Amino acid sequence: MRTRSTATIAIAAVLALGLAGCASGSMDSGTAAASPAAATSQEAAQLDLTGEWEQAGAAGEGNASIQSATIVDDTITVYWINDGEKALYWAGTAELPEGAEGSFTFDSENDTSKTDTALLASSDNTKTFTFEDETLSYEVSALGETWTAELQQTSSTPAAAPAAEESSTSDVAVTIGGASFSEDYEGAPVIVVDFEFTNGSEETANFMTSTQPQAFQGGVELDSYAYVEDIDSSATMTDLKPGASISVQVPFTLRDESPVMVEVSELFSLDGALLDSQEFDVTQ
Questions:
Q1: Spatial separation of the C-alpha atoms in residues 8 and 191, rounded to whole Å
Q2: How far apart are CA 39 and CA 59, in angstroms?
Q3: Which DSSP letter does residue 2 get?
Q4: Alpha helices, DSSP H only, in the chain?
Q5: pTM (2 decimals)?
């Protein structure tokens, strides 16, 4: 993409017309004016979406968040914005079609290396963006609703990525200690994962309402509602004062004998960063 803004193009066009008017009296009769086709081609070549874009109004009924986008180097990154905080929604390609003019669409390919670890990011493989009447629009689905977000360019200079995308901080600390194997009350095989939870916040907190533990086999999430004897399930709801720690066990019903990937993240984290992860061999 070229980095010349739409405003710069408009000013250049006005100056060019003014100079052409001043010089028309001395122009040779044999000099031909630029054809409409050539002017259109030049405008298409100068079209540039690079910069910052922001939505006007709320994102869907009852949703106080809005969305913004940064377009740079043939990529587009879309964020949720709520009370000044940014959370990743989309990261993908932004290749304009050949000869793009005043109205066009382009399909953005999801950069899953960024969106897979973001809690509020879209899981779509592609997303279609439409540019028309100086507005960039696309469909957004969240909280059971789907609506069209419409963004206007606010700057032709891309902003730096938010700090939340570079590093993550958390008010809780969780480590995965190990795992054992058992059966639920119906005899189904279960893996019981040990977690060590520390409340690093300034308020009372517990494991259940602060973290999101998950287990996967073959990339498919396992059920974590299994009932297993000799497990103190109440520990997950035990409140801790700031700085206190507790050991918690969470059972997951196994689907087969493939390896189990266990991950745990903060429940209300905007960036979805993992606090810990570990893979377990079911056949050992």
A1: 62
A2: 38
A3: -
A4: 6-23, 36-46, 112-115, 163-166, 207-210
A5: 0.46
